[in-house]
Amino acid sequence: MKDLLFLMRGIDGKYIRSMPLAEKYAAREFLIDQSLDVSTQTLVQRILPVCANYSTVVRFIEEKSLFEYGLVNHALSAAMQTLIKDYMVLTVQLEQQLNMGQLTLQKMCFYLQPTMNLLDILASVANSINRGKCIGGAVLSLLHEKTASMIGDSKSSQLLLFLTQSACAPYLELVGKWIYRGFIVDPYAEFMVEENEAFNKEKLQEEYNDAYWEKHYSVFRERIPVFLEQVADKILNTGKYLNVVRQCGLDVRCPFAEELVYTIKERRYYDQIERAYSYASQLLLNLLIKEKELVARLKSIKHYFLLDKGDFIVQFMDMTENEMKLHIDDIFPSRLESLLELALRTSTANVDPFKDDLRVDLLPFDLTSQLLQIIAIDSNREKEYQIDPTDMRLSGLESFTFDYVVKWPTSLVISRKALIRYQILFRHLFYCKHVERQLCSVWKGNMQAKAYARSRWYTAAFALRQRMLNFVQNFEYYMMFEVIEPNWHDFQQNMATVSNVDEVLAFHGDFLDCCLKDCMLTSTELLRIVHKLLVVCVTFSNYVQRVSHATTVEAEQERLRESTLQSTLSNKERKENAQKKKTATQVLAEHVDHILEDENFEQTIVRFDTNFSRHLLELLDKIMDENTKTDEHKLFNIIYRLDFNGFYTERLEAMSAERAMADYQSMQESKNTSKSSSSSSLTSFTTQHSESARYVPGQYRSKP
Question: Segment Disordered: which positions (predicted)?
Answer without folding.
Answer: 664-704
